[in-house]
Write a structure and sequence with these properties.
The chain has about 600 residues and is α/β, with parallel strands linked by helices. The chain has three domains: about 300 residues, no CATH class; about 190 residues, Alpha-Beta Barrel (TIM Barrel), CATH 3.20.20; about 70 residues, no CATH class. Keywords: Membrane, Transmembrane, Transmembrane helix.
């Protein structure tokens, strides 16, 4: 009776979960505008090599979808290069005017554009002095001032905006600046340079900078968690940005680069795509053209993307939390050895609370560790029970997605808590459910006294190798690398469908083999352990909240049908192989008896 009540509670918890999932899918389907930004210094460099102006080259790339430019914050050195300031070190200035009150170890700047250095010098907290030398007025600092930040190049920004381009401003963080952010230009996007955001050296400076942001959207750079960025965007508009380093890009073909940009937009919710040109115009145009075509196929529009703003209902999330808790209790009640079930459930709950806390993170983690094992704990008598396990995992998927996904998670700033537990605990939950309802000492004694043949050991070793292979291929930097052939296969799948995960392509077929009971019981158990990993991988796909939910569903669907098809093909093949092996003639008994 209690088991039925728990099942009803799990199904009822799906109501708020499906409402939340529907809201998220609706938001993600509408959030499909991207901007194609070109790095302005790289553009200028390429233009000069080919005898063009930056504006001319930018217009050429515009036909391939480029609608924005990333402009860096000026330094005093960049103003020197443009001829707006003159720089001299003290020793050189003394050579020009030996009688001038110049200090040889200082650096000096003088305005060509009237009043420029005078308008900038008070923005720094480094003391300065003014001198007359060589017929000019100079401002000097006791340090090399050429790298002092000088704010935006407003003329360039205004020109780009007048030409209809989006402008992303790239400020630096520097302690010499008294008031970071006091001169931010009127642009839609901010992309910070380096590993820190302006003002991150202290809470007071960061708060002062944050107050200057206005409605500008902060870009979150893929793979770079800048110091202060999380605090900065907690309640500020933000969106995700993808770029490829110049060194890496030079090793890739234009079509490979384009594929990565399309993948970033389609599967990781990047809405700012940040390009740097190749050395040649032809390669750059090929990269942009293929990116534009790929984005169009994926249903994206090129324009002005808005911030990622998703605010799920806290009430619905708490109601959905009933599902994982009921599932954990159902696991405990499904153990033949009841006390072991409750002890295991209590330990699981404790680990989840430690890793995820008494919060939505903890609820999502509980769903991720319970549902992958629950299906095989409830039923494992035949291959059709694999579909039941898939269905149970699907319930876990909806609950996990509903409870865990929020704005910070979808921005990639709140990674899933307890990822390692999502692989370990389902195996533990399933493995301990196999302990029979008898004195535990009898079970341990039976295990100890099992007689194993060499063939048994070989099969067990094969099963353990499968488990190890799947485990070591976990994450973005797996313990076992990707072969060249697999890399090519991944690329082919990636460009033509949503590529399923490796663990599912192994786990689902192996689970079907385990449920077919072709092998001895111990081997079926090992195969089902691999199957549990496949179910864990299926659920874990949805822990990446920055991936659109429909993409994760398609990835899971592809893993299920491909893995299921492989398993259905393997079952009769393995059955025939086992029958052929068992039909072998018996070895003749030795005519010579041992004496």
């Amino acid at each position: 009776m209690l088991r039925r009540i728990l099942m009803v509670l799990i199904l009822l918890s799906l109501i708020p979960a499906l409402l939340l999932v529907g809201q998220r899918i609706q938001f993600e389907n509408a959030y499909k505008t991207v901007a194609l930004l070109m790095d302005f210094p790289s553009l200028q460099s390429q233009a000069s090599v080919h005898g063009l102006t930056a504006s001319q080259l930018l217009e050429r790339y515009r036909q391939y979808g480029v609608n924005g430019v990333a402009v860096y914050e000026d330094t005093l050195q960049s103003k020197v290069r443009r001829g707006e300031l003159i720089y001299r070190d003290g020793a050189a200035l003394l050579t020009d005017d030996p009688q001038a009150p110049v200090k040889p170890n200082w650096t000096y700047l003088s305005s060509v554009q009237p009043g420029l250095i005078e308008s900038l010098r008070d923005r720094y907290n480094v003391p300065y002095e003014e001198v007359q030398a060589a017929g000019r007025h100079w401002t000097g600092w006791p340090v090399d001032a050429r790298n002092f930040l000088a704010g935006p190049d407003q003329a360039t920004i205004d020109g780009l905006k007048a030409s209809g381009y989006l402008v992303a401003y790239r400020p630096y963080d520097q302690l010499t600046v008294k008031e970071p952010g006091s001169d931010l230009p009127d642009v839609p996007f901010l992309i910070f340079n380096g590993l820190t955001v302006p003002g991150s050296s202290s809470p007071e400076r960061l708060a002062a900078f944050k107050a200057q942001l206005g409605e500008r959207q902060v870009a979150l750079i893929e793979g770079t968690l800048q110091k202060g960025i999380v605090e900065l965007v907690k309640d500020r508009p933000a969106l995700r940005l993808f770029s490829i380093s110049p060194a890496w890009q030079e090793t890739l073909r234009p079509e490979d680069v384009a594929s990565k940009f399309v993948l970033a937009a389609r599967e990781r919710s990047h809405r700012l795509l940040y390009f740097r040109p190749y050395d040649t115009l032809e390669a750059t145009e090929a990269m942009l053209q293929k990116t534009q075509a790929g984005l169009q196929r994926a249903g994206f529009r090129v324009g002005t993307p808005g911030p990622l703003e998703f605010a799920p209902s806290s009430t619905l999330r708490w109601l959905a939390m009933v599902g994982p808790l009921a599932a954990l209790l159902l696991v405990a009640l499904s153990y033949p050895l009841r006390w072991l079930g409750f002890l295991t459930a209590l330990g699981t709950l404790g680990l989840v609370v430690v890793a995820g806390g008494l919060s939505f993170d903890g609820g999502a983690l509980l769903a991720a560790v319970v549902f992958p094992a629950l299906g095989f704990i409830l039923r494992r008598s035949g291959p059709l029970d694999w579909l039941i396990a898939i269905g149970v995992s699907l319930i876990g998927i909806f609950l996990l997605s509903a409870i865990g996904a929020d704005r910070m998670g979808m921005l990639g700033l709140a990674p899933f808590a307890g990822v390692s537990l999502t692989l370990l605990l389902p195996l533990v939950l399933f493995g301990l459910s196999l302990v029979p309802n008898q004195d535990i000492r009898i079970t341990l004694s039976q295990l100890y006294n099992i007689r194993l043949r060499l063939g048994d050991l070989a099969l067990m070793a094969l099963g353990l190798v499968l488990v190890a292979l799947v485990v070591l291929r976990r994450g973005n930097t797996p313990g076992i690398g990707v072969s060249g052939a697999e890399e090519q296969l991944r690329g082919l799948l990636q460009d033509n469908l949503i590529r399923p995960r490796f663990k599912e392509l192994v786990g689902h077929p192996v689970a079907l083999l385990g449920l077919a009971h072709i092998f001895p019981a111990y081997m079926s158990v090992l195969l089902l352990l691999v199957g549990v990993i496949g179910q864990s991988s299926l659920v874990n796909t949805f822990e990446h909240y920055h991936t659109p939910l429909t993409i994760s569903l398609l990835r899971a669907f592809n893993g299920v049908w491909i893995g299921g098809l492989i398993g259905l093909i393997l079952i009769p093949v393995i059955r025939l192989a086992v029958r052929w092996f068992n039909a072998a003639p018996k070895a003749p008994e030795s005519a010579v008896e041992a004496r």
